Amino acid sequence: xxxLDRINDKILRELSRDGRISNMELAERVGLSPSxxxxxxxxxxxxxxxxxxxxxxxxxxxxxxxxxxVGVGLSDHSKAxxxxxERSISRSxxxxxxxxxxxxIEYLLRVEAADLTAYKVFHTDVLGILPQVxxxxxxxxxxxxxxxxx
Length: 150
Known about the structure:
- By secondary structure, the protein is an alpha+beta fold.
- A hairpin with a 6-residue loop joins strand 2 and strand 3.
- Helix 1 crosses helix 2 and helix 2 (23-30) packs across helix 3.
- The two termini are 21 Å apart.
- The longest helix has 13 residues, at 34-46.
- The protein has two domains: 6-46, Orthogonal Bundle (Arc Repressor Mutant, subunit A); 66-140, Lrp/AsnC effector binding domain/regulation of amino acid metabolism (RAM) domain (Alpha-Beta Plaits), CATH 3.30.70.920.
- It has five helices and four strands.
């Protein structure tokens, strides 16, 4: 969308902070009338700039407060190997994000588990048995001073 002017940018920033803000409050914060604000939000939704709205969950309160970023290298760099790995990972609820990246490994995963013991089970019984996986490097998150994922 080419209409990302200063006002649309403000709208997107406000909705990123609070996707449940009322149209009246949003219009006031960005300096528009409610009807003009609503038209802009609807256009941002229609054009796909706004892909959706979601709840931000407290994973620790849900019993999955142990977060690990996992670098995964594949033994075979073929498309078939990548697709097989992606299919396997898509069935794993512990994997909250899977990114195909450049560099010395093929994938970066964000994994959430209850604790270190639960992560070890995932590491061994899920990643460890995939025939495509050649290397696994785990980075345990100790804190997240900035996290803007929605």
